[in-house]
From TrEMBL:
InterPro entries: Nucleic_acid_metab_PIN/TRAM, PIN-like_dom_sf, PIN_dom, TRAM_dom. Keywords: Hydrolase, Magnesium, Membrane, Nuclease, Transmembrane, Transmembrane helix. Residues 292-353 form the TRAM domain. This is Uncharacterized conserved protein YacL, contains PIN and TRAM domains. It comes from Alkalibacterium subtropicum. Gene3D superfamilies: 5'-nuclease (3.40.50.1010).
């Protein structure tokens, strides 16, 4: 269909040029026969010539059209609409300025400068419309009637509350964000950048089976978040050309929205903090809500493997907390009673150190005997 349209366009253009231009060209030829001066003959010759030219030009034109279609297919409707509106406003401003410049009748300023101004204002209007479309959309969105507690979600910049929470790829793949949302501890709007969506799709299409499962899990979590009624989920299609790294793009996006970044990535956490962007770390939240244990507390655990030091055994609580048991090496795959001796909090999580209850009871018995 595209090929036929290109051939038809070339034929019509050639026929039109032949009808209007060919008779004037032939008129300069003194020995030209009279029948060549007829416009219909010129139209036919122009149509044939341009048709033959189109046969060689049709493939490059089809490739160019395909590239343009691919570019536009990757853009959202909102992006194109706001960009077009901005470009139209730029063209209108350029037209108004051109009237004044043409009246000056100065070489270059009256002839060439209006064209440069038109291109610059059209491009600037397109960029402004696409980069600020969320702000423009909010200007025309009717405000909901204020209620008694409406000021909770409408705080000004500088308050601790941030309406927009930008999700990174690791948080979505991890999946615990869905459970946090369902508990109702998060408020505001979750924002997913199209860069994160592309990264998830790339992981889901990976040849590595483990990565493929993780990517598909992330896409499932996104779909589940979108269906949750307790919180809003929005897609952000804005371009962030300042950097190529997806994590840094999310930091720039959070700055632009005056929002926060939700992540599990320790490095992204540090980068965001360095740039004064608030961060919600799911790992830190998980560590904060783990039950507190104190020295002397007793618990029953299963030793699952040997520890790094000699005679140590390692067990895990239901929440994943590691328990290092002294003299637990000989009790692998057995349930034992232990007494907590100390705990250590690290960035990776919490570790609990304990010893066997039988050893503690023996030690207490010796103390009583000596005392």
């Amino acid at each position: 269909m595209v090929t036929k349209l290109i051939l038809l366009t070339f034929t019509l253009v050639g026929g039109s040029l032949g009808y209007n231009v060919f008779p004037d060209l032939i008129a300069n030829w003194e020995d030209a026969p009279n029948w060549l001066l007829h416009p219909i003959i010129g139209m036919a010759l122009g149509a044939v010539i341009f048709y033959l030219v189109s046969l060689t030009a049709v493939k490059p034109i089809e490739k160019a059209i395909g590239k343009v279609e691919k570019v536009f297919s990757e853009m959202s409707i909102a992006y194109l609409m706001f960009g077009s509106i901005g470009a139209i406003i730029g063209l209108i401003l350029a037209l108004l300025f051109s009237y004044g410049l043409n009246a000056l009748s100065i070489i270059f300023i009256s002839d060439v400068f209006p064209f440069i101004l038109t291109v610059a204002l059209a491009y600037g209007g397109f960029q402004l419309g696409t980069s600020r479309r969320e702000e423009i959309r909010r200007l025309f969105t009717p405000k909901i009637t204020e209620q008694e507690n409406s000021d909770v979600l409408e705080r000004k910049e500088g308050d601790t509350f941030r309406k927009y929470k930008v999700l990174d790829t690791s948080t979505i793949i991890d999946g615990r964000i869905l459970d946090v949302v369902r508990t109702g501890f998060l408020e505001g709007v979750l924002v997913v950048s199209h860069y994160v969506l592309k990264e998830l799709q790339y992981i889901a299409d990976s040849s590595d089976s483990l990565k493929r499962v993780r990517g598909r899990r992330g896409l499932d979590i996104l779909n589940a978040l979108q269906k949750e009624k307790g919180i809003a989920l929005e897609m952000d299609d804005s371009d962030i050309p300042e950097t190529e790294e997806v994590d840094l793009k999310l930091v720039h996006l959070a700055k632009k929205l005056d929002g926060m970044v939700i992540t599990n990535d320790f490095n992204l956490n540090k980068v965001a903090e360095f740039q004064n962007v608030p961060v919600l770390n799911i790992n830190e939240l998980a560590n904060a809500v783990k039950p507190v244990v104190i020295p002397g507390e007793e618990m029953r655990v299963m030793i699952v493997k040997h520890g790094t030091e000699r005679s140590q055994g390692v067990a895990y609580l239901d929440d994943g907390t590691m328990v290092v048991v002294e003299e637990g090496k000989h009790y692998v795959n057995k349930m034992v009673d232990v007494v907590v001796t100390s705990s250590l909090q690290t960035n990776a999580g919490r570790m609990i150190f304990a010893k066997l209850s039988s050893d503690q009871k023996s030690l207490d018995h010796r103390k009583d005997a000596n005392g």
